């Protein structure tokens, strides 16, 4: 059980932020930060206030039940209200616990998404393009900005690889669940005997890192320039515009040649490099902290198959939580919440079970962000 004084501290924090935001003297640099914190607290403040009121309401109802002067009808109503009140109180506490769970420090970041055609040849490249279109629709629905960083096309409108950035609010906290191997089962248009083929596309979702996130020294980078190449040499200059950057300490290599400008290619390559190095360091720390984690959700582990899209049956299955839905068309149209929301719930439930009540008794509300 969360101590009531901790919840009272949460309410006081919300009230203080409200006063600060209504003040004309607030520092403009802090306004955005405090506004976000106030908005986050607003998601649970009503539950916090009801949680605090619980003891008084419970005592009032118990007095009615124990009062010898109360008639039977009034006692019956009070007993019913008390039962409902206890159920609601448990709901308030569960919501507060979930809100207070340790947050992934990258949840507020933008994301860089990398989709590659895996096993399956041409069909895999077509699936890669289908997944990209799905994320385009997700971004459109959520009013997120999607910008292509790099793209390599294949035959028949497929993609060998596509890398893009997504910017907006709480991007990584949502898209991080897409990291992993996505598998498709369908009958290719070129298949004359109606056989179902299986193809795959690994997806990496990286929190977009800034220079402040990683200790990057110029001496750690080796930058090579070379002549960009393309089909028949078309769409590229013969100048040394392509860029290859190697992060020497980790061995991470990024090449970029989509732009005709060497400066633009370097900027794009550095953007990808920062995120890959940042994720590698984060994954290393996660593994050191717990070598036997039950789940790799959010750590960037892309070694396991996470989802299957079966076209003949119109179903999509997420193997991490053993959920199967028969709304494949809607999912491909961008309705990912039917899959992601259960994943979020599963992760929250696991964290609650691992932490137990002792953690909440020690929780300091100054950590709320």
- Looking at the structure, what is the overall shape? globular
Query: What is the share of helical residues?
Result: 40-55%
Which strand order does the major sheet show? 2-3-1-5-4-9-10-11
Name the average pLDDT.
82
Radius of gyration, Cα only, in angstroms? Answer: 26 Å
SSE pattern, N- to C-terminal: HHHHEHEEHEEEEEHEEEHH
**Structural class category:** alpha+beta
Biggest sheet architecture? 8 strands, mixed
Percentage beta strand: 15-25%
End-to-end Cα distance, whole Å, is 22 Å
Number of strands: 11
Oligomer description? single chain
Helix run count: 9
Low-confidence segments = 231-238, 289-303, 364-369
Overview of the molecule:
The chain has 369 residues and is an alpha+beta fold. It is built from nine helices and eleven strands. The strands form two sheets. Strands 2-3-1-5-4-9-10-11 form an eight-stranded mixed sheet. Strands 6-7-8 form a three-stranded antiparallel sheet, covered by helices on one side. It starts with a helix and ends in a 7-residue tail after the last helix. The model is unreliable at 231-238, 289-303 and 364-369 (pLDDT under 50).
């Amino acid at each position: 059980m969360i101590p009531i004084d901790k919840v009272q501290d949460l309410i006081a924090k919300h009230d203080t932020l409200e006063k600060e935001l209504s003040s004309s003297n607030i520092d403009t640099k802090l306004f955005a930060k405090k506004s976000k914190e106030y908005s986050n607290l607003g998601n649970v403040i009503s539950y916090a206030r009801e949680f605090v009121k619980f003891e008084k309401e419970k005592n009032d109802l118990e007095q009615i039940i124990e009062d010898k002067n109360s008639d039977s009808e009034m006692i019956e109503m009070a007993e019913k209200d008390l039962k409902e009140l206890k159920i609601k109180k448990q709901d308030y506490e569960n919501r507060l616990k979930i809100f207070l769970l340790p947050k992934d420090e990258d949840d507020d970041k933008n994301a860089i998404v990398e989709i590659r055609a895996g096993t399956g040849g041409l069909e895999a490249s077509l699936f890669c393009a289908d997944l990209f279109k799905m994320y385009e629709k997700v971004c459109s629905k959520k009013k997120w900005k999607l910008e292509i960083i790099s793209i390599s096309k294949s035959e028949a409108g497929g993609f060998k690889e596509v890398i893009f950035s997504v910017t907006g609010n709480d991007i990584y906290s949502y898209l991080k669940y897409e990291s992993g191997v996505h598998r498709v089962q369908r009958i290719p248009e070129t298949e004359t005997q109606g056989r179902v083929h299986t193809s795959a596309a690994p997806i990496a979702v990286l929190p977009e890192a800034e220079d402040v996130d990683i200790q990057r020294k110029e001496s750690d980078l080796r930058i090579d320039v070379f002549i960009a190449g393309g089909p028949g040499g078309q769409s590229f200059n013969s100048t040394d515009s392509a860029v290859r950057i190697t992060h020497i300490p980790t061995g991470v290599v990024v090449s970029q040649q989509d732009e005709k400008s060497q400066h633009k290619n370097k900027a794009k390559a550095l953007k990808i490099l920062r995120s890959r190095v940042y994720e590698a360091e984060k994954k290393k720390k996660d593994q050191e902290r717990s070598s036997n984690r039950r789940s790799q959700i959010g750590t960037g582990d892309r070694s396991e198959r996470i989802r299957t899209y079966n076209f003949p049956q119109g179903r999509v299955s997420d193997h991490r939580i053993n959920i199967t839905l028969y709304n494949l068309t809607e999912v491909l149209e961008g309705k990912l919440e039917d899959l992601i929301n259960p994943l979020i719930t599963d992760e929250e439930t696991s964290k609650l079970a691992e932490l137990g009540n002792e953690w909440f008794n020690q929780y300091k509300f100054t950590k709320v962000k």
